[in-house]
Structure formats: C-alpha cells, structure tokens
C-alpha cells in the first residue's frame, strides 16, 4: 500500500511560516528551511524581549525619578524610602511621569515628604 502524505496540511504549515517571514531580507523570506529557522529565532527573541521590556522600563523610571530627586537634593533611595514611609502610594511609573512632565507636582511631593 502506498504511503499517504497530507500535502494540504504540509503546504498550509509552510505557507503560514512563510507569511510570518514576510519582510525579511534575502532567502529568509522565501526559502522554506531558512525562513523556518528565522521565524523560530524571531519568536524566541519576541518571548525573551517581552520580559526584558518590563526590566528596561523599570530602569528608565528609576533613572527619571533619580534625576528629579537630585534636583531637590535627595538621592533616589532616600526619596523612595521617604515616599514609602509617608504612605504615598504612587508607583514608579507615575512618579517618573511627574518628574519629567510635571516638575511642579513632583516638587510638591518632595516638599510633602521633607
């Protein structure tokens, strides 16, 4: 008995991968084996970088808060320690936004905790 191959499913699988590789350079966009490797690697990078994005933003917020606090003669650690001690429940994202876009509001927070 002849071997049965489900070419419809195979073609659909290859087509899906090649569609994901659209826009890649050279053979990465149209040669099946190269495109498959490129798409798999891209998926790994996407998974990894969704985690790294959170770390990078937290680091950015800390830098911005530190810069804002130093304008008022405090370090980041002193500022955050006093924020927690005074039960000000603003997270780093909001504090960083205040430090960069609304310096007068940030100054009001600094004056409240001093």
UniProtKB/TrEMBL annotation:
| One biological process term in Gene Ontology | translation
Report any Pfam family annotated for this entry.
Ribosomal_L20
* InterPro entries to which the protein is assigned, alphabetical: Ribosomal_bL20, RIBOSOMAL_L20_CS, Ribosomal_protein_bL20_C
Question: Keyword RNA-binding, does the record have it?
Answer: yes
GO cellular component terms attached to this protein's record: ribonucleoprotein complex; ribosome
Q: Which family does it belong to?
A: Belongs to the bacterial ribosomal protein bL20 family.
The cross-references to HAMAP family, in alphabetical order and at most eight, read: Ribosomal_bL20
Q: What does this protein do?
A: Binds directly to 23S ribosomal RNA and is necessary for the in vitro assembly process of the 50S ribosomal subunit. It is not involved in the protein synthesizing functions of that subunit.
What is this protein identified as?
A: Large ribosomal subunit protein bL20
Organism of provenance: Myroides guanonis
Q: Lineage in the entry?
A: Bacteria, Pseudomonadati, Bacteroidota, Flavobacteriia, Flavobacteriales
Q: Which gene encodes it?
A: rplT
């Amino acid at each position: 008995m002849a071997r049965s191959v489900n070419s419809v499913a195979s073609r659909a699988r290859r087509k899906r991968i090649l569609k994901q590789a659209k826009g890649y350079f050279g053979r990465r966009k149209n040669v099946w084996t190269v495109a498959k490797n490129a798409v798999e690697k891209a998926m790994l990078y996407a998974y990894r970088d969704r985690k790294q994005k959170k770390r990078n933003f937290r680091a950015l917020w800390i830098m911005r808060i530190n810069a804002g606090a130093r304008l008022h003669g405090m370090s980041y650690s002193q500022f955050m320690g006093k924020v927690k001690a005074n039960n000000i429940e603003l997270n780093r994202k909001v504090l960083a936004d205040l430090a960069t876009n609304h310096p007068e509001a940030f100054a009001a927070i600094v004056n409240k905790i001093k």
